[in-house]
Task: inverse folding
C-alpha cells in the first residue's frame, strides 16, 4: 500500500517496526501535496503553507529518537500531520486565511502543537480554511477556495476546509481542525472523512486564534475513528494556560475502542429528519442506526423542538464573541496595516476594512449590534438564555440516551459559489451542528454513504459531556461493519482498486 | 443663592501582587519598555487569560476592610474599546457581578466632621499600557509593561460635599489599603489614582445636577484644587444662565485649571459581555473566612490599643496610626526599647517635624527602629543628653546610622565623671567672676550663664544633672 | 426588526469599519434579514432563565502568584508593521 493511503495508525505502526522511515513518510506526503495541491494548476488548495524543510528535518530527528528506543508509547511518532491555519505554530506563518494577519508568525506554539511535538508527530503544513473559521464552505479564504477531492465543482464545507480536503485527497494522513459550529464535522462529512469535535474543554484552546471562545474547540480530522482517538489521546488534557480546559481523568481513547455497542442507547431527534433534509442523506444517516442496531444497540425516536432555535442562538453568541475577539486585529501589533491613513482612527478603519473579508465583516457587525446599548438584552442575553434551555434539553435527553444521532448537514456538498450570495441560507445549513457547540458536547462525523451524484454523506454521533470515548467507540464499531470511510475520493484520492 | 457640591469618587488602586492578573509577568514598576511582557499581556492572537488567585484575595481583603458585601459568585466581563494602550482591544473587568458591593467608609475631616461614605462596588480589572508621545516625529510609542497589572476600582456613592471630605476619604482608603498590604498606594507612580465626578445643585435640592468627570489628579493637593476649581466653574456657568455639559475634564496641575478633554470623535459604547475565557469565581465560606481571618489589625483597632494598653494620648495615637509605616515604626521601635511613651514623643516631635521639613512620607524615610531605640536607650542611661540625641537623630533620619558606633567614634558620651566636671566648674567660676558676683548678689539667673559655660567647656557632653549639682555646690561654698 | 442606515453607521463606527454608501446599504439589507430571522427567539419564553455563558459549571480556575521570565522583546515586536527596537509605534494619539 502507498504510504499516503495508509491511516495514521497504520503508518505509525510501520514506522515503529522500521518498515518505513519517518523522513520517507514526510517526503511521500510532501510529494503528494506537490502533485495535487497547487491552486493555480487547478489543484485542491488545501494548504496555505507547506513546511518542506522543517518537516523533513523534524522527521529525521524523530527517526533518531525512535532508533534510540524513545517514543515507544507514541503510536503516531513520525507520522505527518497538517494543522489548520488558525492554530499558532512558532516561527511559522499563521494566517487564519485572512489578509489582515499578513505574514504573522506566532512567537509561541499552541499547546496542541507542543503536545504533538512531544509525541513525535511531524507537522507538515498549515491548512486552508474559511477566513477566521467563519464560513460553511471553505470559500471565504483570502487564499482561495479549497476544492472538494470528490468533485472539483463542489465545496469542501468549512471552516476546516483544508483539513477535510487534505485527508480526503491523501495529502495528509491526518489533521487538526477547529470546530465552533460544525467546522470539523460538516467538512468531514462533505469530504467523506472522519472528524471529531471533542467535549468543550477537553482540548486546550491556548494558541487557537479565537472565533467564539465559548464554542471553539480543536479536534482531529482523519481517515477513521481509531486515528481520531489516537490524535485525541495526544492533544487532550488540562492546560494551565487555558482556564476553560477540563481536568478529568480518563482512559486512553484508543485503548477504549472495543467495537462493542450492545445495549448502547441511541436517540434519534425526529425534528432533525423532517423537511429540509435531503432524502439520500436521511436514508444514509438512519442507516447508521440500523447498522448499530444489528450489533445490539437500541434506538428510539424522541422530540427536541428547541433544535429549531439553535441557529439564531448560535449566530448571536458566536458573532458577539467574534466582534470582541477580532478587535485586536487593528494594524498596530501584527499583520497587515493599510497605507494612506490620516490618523490613528483612520488607520484602524482602513486596515480593518481592507484586511477583513465580507463574511467576517458581516459577523463583526452582527456581533457588535447584538452587544450594543439597547440591544444587549433583546439579543445577546436572550441568546444566552436560550442556550441554557438547549443545554437543559440535551441534559434531559442524555438521561435516556448514550448517543444522539444527527445528520452532519442537510445536504451533501453544494456547488461552488451557491452559498455565499445568501448568507442566511448558509447559516441555516448549520442546523445540525451548532447546537452541539452550544451545549459543549462531543460530536463525531462518520462517512455513511453517498448521494445519487456520488458525493459523500456524513452521520453525526453526539455524546453526553465527556462522552468522547462513547462516540469514538460507536463510530469505530460502525466503521468495522462498513467501508464508506475506505472509499477513495474519485478525483484525487486513492486509485480505485 | 447657596450652592452644594456633590461628588462621587472612582479610585483605581494597583494591587501589590508579584505577577500580573492574567499572566506570569512581573508587576515591578519601571523597566525598559516592553520587557515585562509576554504573548498573553501583549494580546497575541490565540492567547488566553488565567486569573491570579492573589488578586482575588487582595480584592476580598479590601472589600472586607471597607465593610463591603462579598459577591460569593462573581465573574469577569469584557469592556470593548479600541486604543493602542489596550492590545486586546478589550479590558477584562467586572460589570455585572463585581466582587464587592455595598461598603461603608467612616471618615473624620480635619475640622472634625464625622460621616460615612458609601461604597457602591469594588471590581477587579487589568491596567492598560503606557503611551509615550514623541512630538517631534508626531508618533506614539506603546509600552505594554503595565498591561495586565492588577487593579481594583473602588466606586463610591455620590456622598461627598466638600474637598475636605474627599481628602479625608482618600487618606482613610490609602491608610487602610496600606495596612492590608494590598497596595503601596503611591499616587506619584500611579498606583493610586482618583477620578472625581462632580456636580453642583442648589442647597436643599433633591435632584443631582449634570456631572463632569475629572482625571489626571496626581496628589491630594491637586484633588483639592481641582474640586474647588470645578465647583466654581460649574456655578459660574449656571449663574450666567448656561448649562453644565457632561464631559471628561483633565486637570493641569501646572496651570491650576481643568480642560475639557477633546470629546472622542467616536461613540462610547463599551459593549460589556461576560468574559468567555474565564470561568466564574465562587467564594465559599472557608475561603471567605480564611481571608477574613488573615486581615491585619487596622488603624482604628490599633489606635484604641495604643490608648488603652500603651497609654498614648488620643491625638498621638491617631497621628501614629494614620500611616501604616509610622505605626510599624512605632511598634518595632517600642519592641526594641520597651518605652512606648518615649517612642511616641520622639515620633510626634522630632520625626513629624523632619518628615514635614523634608516633605516625605514615613515609608520612604531612612530612619530605622534600631537607631531611634538606641538613641532612647542612650538618653535613658544618660550616656548622652537629649540635645546631643536630637543632633544624632537628624543624621540618622537621612542615613542608616549605627548610633552606638557613631557616639563612640565621635566621643559623644556624656561626661558624668564628678572629678572631671568639678575641675571644669572650678575653672569656669574662676574665669567668670562677674557672673559669680551677680549670682551671689541675688541674681539667680546668672547660674544659667555659668551652666552654659560649663557645657561649652565640656563640648556639650556634660551630664546636666552632674554639672548642675557641682556648680550649685561650688557657688554656695 | 428594521435596521436603519443610522444603525449601520453606528455599528460600523463601533467596529472600526469603513463602509462605502453602497456597502452600507448592502449591510443594512443583509443585517436586517439576519437580525429579522434572529427575532424568532422571541417565540421562546425565557422569563426566569439564567443566561448561560459557560456550558459547564467549571469555576475557580486560578494560578498562583508566581513570576516567570517575560518573553523576548524582539520576538514580541517582530510582527509589528511599525516598531523600533523597544516599542510598537502608532500615529500620535490625541488626549
Result:
Amino acid at each position: 500500500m502507498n504510504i499516503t493511503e495508509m491511516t495514521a495508525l497504520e503508518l505509525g505502526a510501520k514506522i515503529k517496526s522500521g518498515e518505513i522511515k519517518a523522513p520517507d513518510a514526510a517526503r511521500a506526503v510532501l510529494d503528494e501535496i506537490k502533485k495535487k495541491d497547487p491552486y493555480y494548476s487547478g489543484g485542491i488548495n488545501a494548504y496555505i503553507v507547506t513546511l518542506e524543510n522543517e518537516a523533513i528535518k523534524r522527521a529525521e530527528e524523530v527517526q533518531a529518537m525512535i532508533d534510540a528506543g524513545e517514543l515507544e508509547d507514541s503510536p503516531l511518532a513520525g507520522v505527518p500531520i497538517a494543522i489548520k491555519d488558525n492554530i499558532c505554530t512558532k516561527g511559522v506563518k499563521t494566517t487564519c486565511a485572512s489578509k489582515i494577519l499578513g505574514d504573522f508568525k506566532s512567537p509561541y506554539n499552541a499547546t496542541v502543537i507542543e503536545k504533538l511535538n512531544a509525541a513525535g508527530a511531524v507537522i507538515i503544513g498549515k491548512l486552508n480554511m474559511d477566513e477566521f473559521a467563519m464560513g460553511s464552505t471553505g470559500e471565504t479564504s483570502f487564499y482561495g477556495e479549497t476544492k472538494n477531492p470528490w468533485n472539483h465543482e463542489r465545496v469542501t464545507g468549512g471552516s476546516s476546509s483544508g483539513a477535510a480536503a487534505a485527508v480526503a485527497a491523501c495529502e495528509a494522513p491526518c489533521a487538526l481542525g477547529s470546530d465552533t459550529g460544525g467546522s470539523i464535522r460538516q467538512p468531514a462529512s462533505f469530504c467523506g472523512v472522519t472528524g471529531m469535535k471533542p467535549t468543550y474543554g477537553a482540548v486546550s484552546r491556548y494558541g487557537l486564534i479565537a472565533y467564539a471562545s465559548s464554542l471553539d474547540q480543536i479536534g482531529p480530522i482523519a481517515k477513521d475513528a481509531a486515528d481520531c482517538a489516537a490524535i485525541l489521546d495526544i492533544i487532550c488534557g488540562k492546560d494551565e494556560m487555558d482556564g476553560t480546559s477540563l481536568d478529568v481523568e480518563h482512559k486512553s481513547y484508543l485503548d477504549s475502542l472495543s467495537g462493542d455497542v450492545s445495549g448502547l442507547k441511541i436517540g434519534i431527534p425526529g425534528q432533525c429528519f423532517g423537511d429540509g433534509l435531503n432524502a439520500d442523506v436521511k436514508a444514509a444517516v438512519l442507516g447508521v442506526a440500523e447498522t448499530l442496531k444489528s450489533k445490539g444497540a437500541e434506538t428510539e425516536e424522541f422530540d427536541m423542538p428547541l433544535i429549531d432555535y439553535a441557529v439564531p442562538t448560535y449566530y448571536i453568541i458566536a458573532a458577539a464573541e467574534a466582534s470582541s475577539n477580532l478587535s485586536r486585529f487593528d494594524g498596530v501589533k501584527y499583520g497587515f496595516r493599510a497605507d494612506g491613513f490620516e490618523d490613528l482612527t483612520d488607520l484602524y478603519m482602513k486596515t480593518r476594512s481592507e484586511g477583513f473579508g465580507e463574511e467576517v465583516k458581516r459577523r463583526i457587525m452582527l456581533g457588535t449590534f447584538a452587544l450594543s446599548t439597547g440591544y444587549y438584552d433583546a439579543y445577546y442575553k436572550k441568546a444566552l438564555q436560550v442556550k441554557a434551555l438547549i443545554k437543559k434539553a440535551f441534559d434531559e435527553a442524555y438521561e435516556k440516551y448514550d448517543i444522539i444521532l444527527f445528520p452532519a448537514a442537510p445536504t451533501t456538498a453544494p456547488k461552488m459559489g451557491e452559498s455565499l450570495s445568501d448568507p442566511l441560507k448558509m447559516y441555516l445549513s448549520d442546523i445540525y451542528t451548532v447546537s452541539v457547540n452550544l451545549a459543549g458536547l462531543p460530536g463525531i462525523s462518520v462517512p455513511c454513504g453517498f448521494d445519487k451524484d456520488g458525493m459523500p454523506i456524513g452521520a453525526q454521533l453526539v455524546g453526553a459531556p465527556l462522552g468522547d470515548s462513547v462516540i469514538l467507540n460507536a463510530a469505530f464499531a460502525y466503521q468495522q461493519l462498513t467501508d464508506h470511510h475506505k472509499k477513495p475520493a474519485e478525483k484525487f484520492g486513492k486509485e480505485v482498486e | 443663592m447657596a450652592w452644594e457640591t456633590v461628588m462621587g469618587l472612582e479610585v483605581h488602586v494597583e494591587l501589590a501582587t508579584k505577577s500580573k492578573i492574567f499572566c506570569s509577568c512581573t508587576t515591578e514598576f519601571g523597566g525598559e519598555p516592553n520587557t515585562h511582557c509576554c504573548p498573553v499581556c501583549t494580546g497575541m492572537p490565540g492567547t488566553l487569560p488565567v486569573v491570579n488567585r492573589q488578586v482575588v484575595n487582595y480584592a476580598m481583603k479590601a472589600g472586607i476592610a471597607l465593610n463591603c458585601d462579598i459577591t460569593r459568585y462573581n465573574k469577569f466581563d469584557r469592556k470593548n474599546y479600541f486604543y493602542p494602550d489596550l492590545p486586546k482591544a478589550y479590558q477584562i473587568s467586572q460589570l455585572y457581578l463585581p466582587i464587592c458591593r455595598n461598603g461603608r467608609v467612616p471618615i473624620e475631616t480635619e475640622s472634625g466632621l464625622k460621616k460615612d461614605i458609601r461604597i457602591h462596588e469594588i471590581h477587579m480589572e487589568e491596567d492598560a499600557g503606557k503611551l509615550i508621545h514623541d512630538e517631534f516625529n508626531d508618533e506614539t510609542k506603546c509600552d505594554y509593561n503595565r498591561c495586565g497589572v492588577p487593579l481594583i476600582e473602588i466606586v463610591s456613592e455620590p456622598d461627598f460635599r466638600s474637598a475636605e471630605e474627599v481628602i479625608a476619604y482618600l487618606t482613610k482608603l490609602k491608610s487602610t489599603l496600606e495596612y492590608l498590604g494590598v497596595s503601596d498606594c503611591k499616587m506619584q507612580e500611579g498606583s493610586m489614582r482618583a477620578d472625581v465626578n462632580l456636580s453642583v445643585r442648589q442647597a436643599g435640592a433633591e435632584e443631582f445636577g449634570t456631572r463632569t468627570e475629572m482625571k489626571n489628579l496626581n496628589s491630594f493637593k491637586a484633588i483639592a484644587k481641582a474640586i474647588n476649581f470645578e465647583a466654581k466653574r460649574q456655578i459660574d456657568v449656571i449663574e450666567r444662565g448656561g448649562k453644565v455639559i457632561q464631559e471628561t475634564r483633565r486637570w493641569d496641575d501646572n496651570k491650576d485649571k481643568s480642560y475639557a478633554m477633546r470629546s472622542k470623535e467616536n461613540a462610547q459604547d463599551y459593549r460589556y459581555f461576560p468574559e468567555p475565557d474565564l470561568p466564574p469565581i465562587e467564594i465559599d465560606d472557608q475561603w471567605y473566612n480564611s481571608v477574613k481571618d488573615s486581615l491585619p489589625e487596622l488603624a482604628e483597632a490599633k489606635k484604641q490599643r495604643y490608648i488603652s494598653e500603651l497609654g498614648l494620648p488620643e491625638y498621638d495615637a491617631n497621628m501614629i496610626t494614620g500611616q501604616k509605616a509610622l505605626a510599624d515604626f512605632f511598634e518595632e521601635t517600642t519592641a526594641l526599647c520597651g518605652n512606648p511613651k518615649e517612642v511616641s514623643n520622639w515620633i510626634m516631635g522630632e520625626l513629624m517635624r523632619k518628615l514635614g521639613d523634608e516633605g516625605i512620607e514615613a515609608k520612604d524615610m531612612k530612619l530605622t527602629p534600631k537607631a531611634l531605640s538606641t538613641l532612647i536607650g542612650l538618653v535613658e542611661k544618660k550616656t548622652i543628653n537629649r540635645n546631643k540625641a536630637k543632633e544624632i537623630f537628624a543624621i540618622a533620619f537621612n542615613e542608616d546610622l549605627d548610633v552606638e558606633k557613631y557616639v563612640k567614634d565621635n566621643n559623644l558620651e556624656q561626661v558624668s565623671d564628678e572629678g572631671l566636671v568639678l575641675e571644669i566648674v572650678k575653672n569656669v567660676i574662676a574665669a567668670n567672676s562677674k557672673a559669680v558676683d551677680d549670682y551671689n548678689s541675688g541674681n539667680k539667673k546668672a547660674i544659667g550663664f555659668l551652666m552654659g559655660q560649663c557645657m561649652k567647656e565640656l563640648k556639650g557632653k556634660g551630664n546636666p544633672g552632674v554639672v548642675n549639682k557641682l556648680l550649685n555646690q561650688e557657688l554656695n561654698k | 426588526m428594521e435596521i436603519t442606515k443610522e444603525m449601520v453607521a453606528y455599528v460600523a463606527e463601533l467596529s472600526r469599519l469603513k463602509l462605502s454608501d453602497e456597502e452600507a446599504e448592502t449591510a443594512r439589507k443583509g443585517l436586517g434579514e439576519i437580525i429579522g430571522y434572529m427575532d424568532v427567539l422571541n417565540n421562546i419564553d425565557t422569563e426566569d432563565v439564567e443566561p448561560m455563558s459557560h456550558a459547564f459549571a467549571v469555576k475557580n480556575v486560578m494560578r498562583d502568584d508566581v513570576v516567570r521570565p517575560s518573553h523576548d522583546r524582539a520576538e514580541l515586536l517582530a510582527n509589528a508593521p511599525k516598531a523600533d527596537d523597544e516599542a510598537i509605534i502608532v500615529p500620535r494619539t490625541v488626549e
Q: What stands out?
A: Chain A has a mean pLDDT of 96. Chain A has 15 helices and 13 strands. The first strand of chain A starts at residue 47 and ends at 50. Residues 3-258+481-486 of chain A form a domain with the Amidase signature (AS) enzymes fold (CATH 3.90.1300.10).
